[in-house]
Amino acid sequence: MGKEEMIKGVLYVVNVLYAVFGLVTAATGIWFFVQLSEFVALRNSNHYLLDYRVYWPQVAPWLFILLGLFVMMVAFCGWCGASKESRGLLGIYGIFLCLIVLGQVIAATLIFVYVDGEHTDRFIKDTVYDGYYNSQSNPDVFKAFGRIERKLRCCGANDARDYRSWRNDLPLTCCQDSYYRATCEFTDKEANERLGCAKVAAVYTKIISSSVAGASLLISLVEIAGVILAWRLFKSLREVEHYLPERKEGETEC
User: Fold this and answer.
1) Which family does the UniProt entry place this protein in (predicted)?
2) 204 neighbors 152 (Cβ within 8 angstroms)
3) What's the rounded Cα separation, in Å, for the pair 147 and 143?
């Protein structure tokens, strides 16, 4: 029974880690959704409505949220299975955990394969270009594009020269310490060294996506350990169930 209790203890700890991972995953999905909503809002509404394709940056936040909630439910199932020593719950837990591991590996592989794809670059560049051109006539979009410039430390769609055609100076968001400056001139060295937001946003998205995919693969290794522990406890409980009836029959005969 000492070995069984040790497996249960480790399984408890592993499921707490799963629950935390699920919570972090769901929170990441919500954060990703908020960030992407501000980004997608830059797109031209007519262009966006006519584009019926679904790009992975639009789907990824919802996948993260659903995966996080599902992982928390599976972790609760594993906790209950170990606590009540229920072979049924442990079996369901093991199957769902295998599905999660499989899903994570597939999702990570797809991200690594398609994150550098043409469709992703097109989605990001179209969004940035739409936002830049709309900012020339819409003050709200101009402010939203400025927030992107300040956040990503970029300037214009391609670079600072984009603003020469319709402004007498650069937006303050193109310059360092923009909160404390009155103007940002075209001669500003730091502003002219900044890359365009289309390129920076593409690199930024790829770095975040690749990091999440890599972390997902590492976590899947811990989940495989959970599957092994659940199977060991499942097998141990089966041996106990076979042992107890034999012992009772022996006692009655005495």
Assistant:
1) Belongs to the tetraspanin (TM4SF) family.
2) yes
3) 6
